[in-house]
Structures are given as C-alpha cells and as structure tokens.
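Sample A.
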Amino acid sequence: MPDTVAIVGAGLTGLACARSLPEGIRPIVVDRVPVPGGVHGWDNDETRAAATAAEARGAVLHLGETAIRWDGEELLVMGQDGARRIPARALVVAAGSRPLGRAELGLAGPRPAGILAATVACHLSETGLLAGRRPAVVGGGDWAARAVGALLHAGAERVQVVAPEGILRPFPGSPAVTVGTGAPVAVEGAVRVSALRLHGGERVECDALILAHGLAPLRNVDGAVWEGPRTVYAQPAGDPTTVAAAQRAGSAAAADVARILEAA
C-alpha cells in the first residue's frame, strides 16, 4: 500500500508537488475551487499540462472540497456531500498567498468602511458589486492589476493606483486609471474612507481603498494545524508570481516530504 500525502491547493505549486513526489507516494490534492489552477486559472496551457502530469503520476484530485483540520494522521475536509477524512502520512499546504492587510502595511488612522483586500474587491466586482466609484488601489503587482481590471469592469469611474515599489505587472490601459508611487502611511475618513495619506503629506482622495501590495501565505488550515507533525508549506510569496517560481516551490516541497517520510 503506497504512502499517501495530502496536498491542500490545486494551483501550479500543489500540482508540481504532486507530480514531483517519489514513486511509492500517492498524492491526494484538495482544493475548495472546483477546477485546478489557483490564481493562474484553468484555461491556459500551463495549468492543463500541470494537471495532466499530476494525474499521470497517480495524483487524485478532490476539487470543491475545503480542508478543515489536520491532526498528523488525517486531513478533515468538507465538501458538497459533507465531511470526510483523508488518511495521510504528511500534509503539504500549497494554498497560495494573499495581499498584505492593513496592519501588515502599517496603515494608521481610523477604521472607516470601504477598506478591502484585493481578493475581496475582485470577488465583489465579479458578482456585479462595485467596491467604490473612485477607489484607490495600493500595489503594483498581480493582485493590483487584477483589482484595477475588475473595478473598471464593474463600473468604477476613476482608479488611482499607488505603487510603493513601482509597476511590476502591466495594468489595464484606460484614461480612468492614474498611476503614482509613494508610501501609504494612514487612512482618513469617518463613516467611510475618504482619503489615503502618503509619506510626505500627499493625500489621495478615494471612496474605497483596495489593499493589493505585497504577499503573505494564505493558510486556510493554519488554525487547525497547530504545528502538526509532518507539515510542509509550499507558498512562494514573490510578486508578480511566475509559473517557474510555483514549479520550483512545488518540487522543493516534494523533496521535503520525501525527507520527512524517510526519517519517520
């Protein structure tokens, strides 16, 4: 009976890990999204090739299921048909990354409504809900570019981009988009955000603030892992993300799993 390794995340990193595991280890890949690909999406050659290679290696993909808890022996997942347990000898968390939050960015000031992570702003825009008509977007990488496109599509009149490290990814070309640099230091506003204050005193007036700068690991099972045994984290935090970086992280995680199981 082969050893089983549970992998949370069916993006390029999780799929690369699955196909890179040594023979004799059976990968089971879990993702809350019903299609593989993660932030890279399903409809591209890289994702299709990665999924095909992982399945050819013997990986089993359980899509549309959310990882809930890992106790070192079983991964509890919740899906459309309820909860079930996946016995495994190790867990790989390849759940991707998220933009930095307000506290992580060090933004002072009050806490008015209208401050959203880019992930939330994109989701709202995709469902037809506009975060703001004159939003400011902090960031210059993947999530910032994605948020600008989603906001414009949802009907934003003007989008002001503040890119602390410059533009790292091409942005949608539109006269409604203004791009600048600077270091955000504080939020202004009472009931709703009214401006973003930059280092040096410059103010960017806005009715919503979209946080899309920097990346941190998105660990949706972190609170239930509690430093559980035989856990490997595979979450590159480079911005912009690249296919090569995801593949390297997945291969490195597979090597770490092999060493863990050899030592067990």
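Sample B, a different protein:
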Amino acid sequence: MSNFYLDVIRNDPRFNSPIECRDVDLLEPATHAAVAGIIRDAFDVGVDLFVTETYRSAARQQLLFAEHATQLRRVGVHHFGLACDFAKLIDGKASWAGDWAFLGRLAAKYGMIGGIDWGKPGVVHDWVDPDHVQRCTVEQQAALFAGKWYPETA
C-alpha cells in the first residue's frame, strides 16, 4: 500500500519551501480528483474557481501563523496533500467576497470537508475558512499530524 505523503510529498524539492504552492499534482490522488470535480461543478453553477494553495510546508505554515492567517502554528492538513484553498475569478481578478456556502455543499458531494462548517452544518465554529476544503475530518487531524493515520492511496 502506498502513502502519497511519504512517496511523493516528502521527496518533492518544495517540501521545505516557504513559497506558496498551487500545484495540484501535490494533492493526494483522491483529493486531486475531488478538487477537479469541485471546480467543474462550481463552473456549472456560474462560479469560476481557481486553486490558490495546495501543499504547504512547515516553514510556510509558520509564516501564515505569524500573519494570523491560520490558527495552526505547526503543519496543517495542507502539508499532507489533503487540502486546497480557492478563490473566485471575477472580472479577471481573485475574489473571496460573497457567499461560499456552495463550496461546503460541493465539498460534501466529493467526500471532502469544507472550512465553512468543518463538516458539521449548524454548529457554530470558532474558525471559519470558507474557501478551504480538506480530505480529513477535524477529528482525524491529530492522528494525521502525529503520523498515525493517512488515507489509503490506490
């Protein structure tokens, strides 16, 4: 059984880079397929989405934490190729304005968790990240970060 994180991400030259990465090839294969489906379905309902970040190194995570752009000081789900952030393309420019509820619905359709409700609609959350999707539940994150769990890769 292969492990995308160990086989691909750990061996990528960007593993320690503090630079933003939008490369969908650094998304675990099922995550990559889900992101492609989300983009297609969003376009079908009139929303032109594009990827703003996929893989994120520990160094980049530290920078974002210092800028208060994330609540996680250490690596998050992005580090494992299991998360993706988006922006809407409006008049040729990136936009995060407006309603993002559609992304939560599309995330659920593709077996992902949307940062708008973290897979728990109706629950009030301390941190909302409406342009974010990930392929693990909040409850699975501790095991992921500890190296005790990673989704199977076909």
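Observation for Sample B: The CA atoms of residues 21 and 53 lie 5 Å apart.
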